[in-house]
Specification:
Elements (H helix, E strand, L loop, with lengths): L1 H17 L3 H12 L4 H7 L8 H38 L18 H15 L3 E2 L5 E3 H4 L26 E3 L5 H9 L4 E10 L11 E11 L4 H16 L5 E8 L2 E10 L8 E2 L2 E2 L8 E10 L1 H6 L8 E8 H9 L5 H5 L2 H4 L3
Parallel strand pairs: 1-4
Antiparallel strand pairs: 2-3, 4-5, 5-11, 6-7, 7-10, 8-9, 10-11
This protein binds phenylalanine (PHE).
Phenylalanine binds next to strand 7, strand 10 and strand 11.
Length: 347
């Protein structure tokens, strides 16, 4: 029996030493010390021993068990440490490698200009509202007093979705006027920036998608003077006190009277010439057209359930790209949409 115990101990020590994982250790523990384990088997034979032998063997068996347990425990600690060591080695971080620089983006020049314009109008008490880009022809044209057959409704100018020409990509932000007046009663004081679409070939000054900012103010006693005041304030705030504007008579079906506002060309200072050459920015005009505007047509007010006898209003629609071309001092619109980082980084 003594040999048996010693052989169990020897083999156990070897097996434990060789065990390479916690799972193997657990298997060994069951095999050696478990209820059906080798040591238990030996102890079951204690009955056959004499009274003198029994305590001696008992003691030996206990010490074998204690040694196996101690070895098990120690191997567990060893394996755990080895696993940790391996993990740490694998996950080593070389703190001396230079880090990746975080590239900070910035606002697109169009958004910068939009933000400036919004700031000025919000400062004057305007609310910023939104309208859908997919619009009903009814809102985009009819209720703005643009009748069936008007050239601006032509299929060659407008992206229609349906055969009956009732749904389209809005060609202007003016339908937002209708949407606002339908839902709110005066006083109304809003701007509505957004994308608009026309079937234009892209060139230096045209793009099939561009941006407008609509403005609408309706209340009692609103006059053309209020319109000029609001737009002049905007221009002076954006371009400084020396900015020069002019208002020219024009025609829009949804305003009466109507006008366009031009800004004196910043390149040639209104002379139309730079170094004896025709100015390339204004094509010799001396002025750059920035927006259309006017007093809201009484029919349009009526179309929205607002009494034109009691209320009057002004509206304007400005081209955001035009404004951005002025502040970025570029003369080709396509640069704005190319998204070339070398261009964008200059602003
Ligand atoms: N919607 C007009 C355009 O796109 C501009 C405009 C807006 C004119 C509001 C008058 C009033 O040309």
């Amino acid at each position: 029996m003594k040999e048996q115990l010693e052989s169990i101990k020897r083999q156990a020590m070897e097996a434990l030493e060789a065990a390479g994982s916690p799972a193997v250790l657990e298997e060994l523990r069951v095999k050696l010390l478990g209820k059906k384990g080798e040591l238990t088997n030996v102890l079951k034979q204690m009955g056959k021993l004499t009274a003198q032998e029994r305590p001696v063997m008992g003691q030996l068996a206990n010490s074998v068990r204690a040694e196996i347990e101690a070895k098990l425990e120690q191997r567990k600690v060893d394996l755990h440490a080895a696993a940790l060591e391996e993990k740490l080695l694998k996950e080593t971080v070389d703190v001396t490698i230079p880090g990746k620089a975080v590239v900070m983006g910035k606002q697109h020049p169009m958004n910068q200009v939009l933000q400036q314009i919004k700031d000025v109008f919000v400062g004057m008490g305007y609310q910023v509202v939104d309208g859908p880009e997919v619009e009903l022809a009814d809102y985009n044209f009819t209720r703005l007093n643009i009748e069936e057959g008007h050239p601006s409704r032509d299929r060659s100018d407008t992206f229609y979705f349906t055969d009956d020409d009732s749904l389209l990509l809005r060609t202007q932000t003016s339908p937002v006027q209708i949407r606002v007046m339908e839902n709110a009663k005066p006083p109304i004081c809003i701007i509505a920036p957004g994308r608009v679409y026309r079937k234009d070939e892209a060139d230096a000054t045209h793009s099939p998608m561009f941006h407008q900012i609509e403005g609408l103010v309706v209340d009692e006693h609103i006059t053309m003077g209020d319109l000029k005041g609001a737009l002049t304030t905007l221009m002076k705030q954006l371009y400084g006190p020396d900015a020069v504007m002019r208002f020219r008579p024009h025609h829009f079906p949804f305003t009466e009277p109507s006008c366009e506002m031009d800004m004196q060309c910043h390149k040639c200072k209104g002379t139309g010439e730079v170094d004896g050459q025709v100015c390339s920015t204004c094509h010799g005009e001396g002025w750059i057209e920035l927006l259309g505007a006017g007093m809201v047509h009484p029919k349009v007010l009526e179309n929205c359930g607002i009494d034109p006898e009691k209320y009057s209003g002004f509206a304007f629609g400005m081209g955001l790209e035009r404004m951005a071309m002025r502040s970025t001092r570029i003369n080709d619109l396509r640069l704005i949409f190319d998204n070339d980082i070398r261009f964008l980084n200059q602003f």
